[in-house]
Amino acid sequence: MRSPGNKGAYRLSQAAFLAFAACSVLLTVIPGCVAPPTVVRKSCTDCHAKEYAEYKKGNVHKPVLDGHCEGCHLPHGLLGALVLKAQDSTLCYQCHEKDRLALEKGIPHTPVKNGACLECHNPHSSPSKGITRLGGNDLCYKCHPKEAFIKKTVHKALDRCDACHAPHSSEYGNNLLDSGNKLCLKCHDPGSSASVKAHFDYNVADTDCLSCHTPHASNGDKLTRNFGHGPFARRKCQDCHNPPSSKEALKTVLEKDGLCYNCHKGEKEAFKKGMVHSPVAKGECASCHNPHASDYKYELSGREKTLCYTCHRETEKKHQKKFIHTAVKESDCSPCHDPHASEKKHMLKGEGASLCYNCHKKDNFVRALTHAPVKEGNCIVCHDPHASDQQYVLISPEGELCYTCHSGEKKRFSLVSVHPKVREGRCTDCHTPHGGNEGKLLLSEKEKLCFNCHSKMLDSVGGEGVHKVFSEGRCLACHDAHSSGNPSQLVEETGTLCFRCHEGVERDLKGAAVVHSPAEEGKCVACHGAHGSKIKWSLLRPVESLCYSCHEKLKEEEKKAGVFVHKAVKDGQCLECHAAHFSKTDNLLISGGRSVCMKCHADMKGEKDKLTHRNISTSGSDCLGCHEPHFGGDKRLLHGVQHEPFKKEECKRCHDRL
Fewer CB within 10 Å: N-end or C-end of the chain? Predict the structure, then answer.
């Protein structure tokens, strides 16, 4: 309803509508005017006709039958991709939400629990009922190996798994449709004359059918389980039970273990030991053994490990840890523990390492040197016999474990510079934890051990530059293997350490007038590679660049424009004039005055000397009085500041008076 106050607006909108209608008519009748294109929406089946025809065969999923593809798929999505609106059961429950309670009640079937509906169902169509991917038992055999159900005697009900099992969920174990004997009673009447006769005149009503029979298939007659108790296997029921004519026919002739020991007299004595398993002590043999038949050896009432876990819950939790002892992971408890009685703690079958050596070959641990716990046969001082969160089922992280015995080393190994392996607690990277042939239980000879990690260092040395102590693998002559108060785990400060071998150099340095600064400060590695190099004397770099690493200003001056450089300097022959460590002469010259120059300028004698020096003999003079040793302003390398007569080459003004 329009309000009276909006009459003007209404008239305006009415006029606009009429104008729009008139224009639409004109567009259709006036030549040259074209109406805008109309988008016609196609259905999915217009393009996917072939697939749709295939999907409509057999039993068809309702959205497919209705052509409602968008019930599950997004209409556009990524190019070439079939994009679902949701994943797993979330998508299915958009329509089947009302069935959810029934499908997930009690104990759900694994695919239902995982929300994986499409593991069993085809989302489009199937020849099978319930649009299952395969028909009948073939669907079940996708997950449950068929071989387990093909034996000498097969239960008739096995023709259809769903005769006993619910496909989605159940309130009973193993997805059964009912509990215990109730399910069996749907087909079998234990009180019938045929059943009583089959059970040797015993009426087995109200007993547990599965205590004797397997529900699927058996290698015995009448679906009896694989392992039968002696009297049961011989069908001598009266060895244990009252006669069939008795008022309490199924009652046993004796109670608890009294009945068992009636036959197992030897075991009764054998079980009288220091440690007795609780069920044995209580006379409850049937808590572990089925008195009739079982699918497990020794007529155990379940898989051995599962059976043990029914009481040992804490042990089961422990076995969920990251690393599990192979004996636990791949075997049962009885290889190590006696299930009845033992003289050993924890019902063990052996003591100490003797038990471990049943699986772990003893010869692998017998060496020239044996780690104390191994020698004492005390494996569990380091290893947990069941499971651990540490590799090799160690009871604690490797480093911490070693320090439980080597507590003194822990303090000694906590200095300034610590070997990375020690810091990370990886002792077994260098030491064998059990036994070896090398001292201190090293994995290999100490001369080779370090190169297991530091092999690339060998590539950096060669020729005349090899430091002998390094190439021979005598690393511990300089380094502490674990930790030190000096950098790089050195056993002493650099200079002191080097002088251990280079005693002559130390002696000469002490008596020298002039000592090179790095040598005086004991910084040998400022010039020499501690391990060596590929340059003579293990120098870190060629002589020229090595000297310039400290004498930078000298290098800068030589590079200036107009500077003439002494040939020895240009050729990087610093050691032709200077001593590397010490000297009796200033500036570390190898000899004093003129003699050092004469090594190269030996021809500057006699007449040539006079001719070069304005007929004045320079014999006995110091060349450095006039010449620069490294560089100068002209080819003669003369000092930059010169005496006026010298500058004008008027030598005789002064020398004639001498």
Answer: N
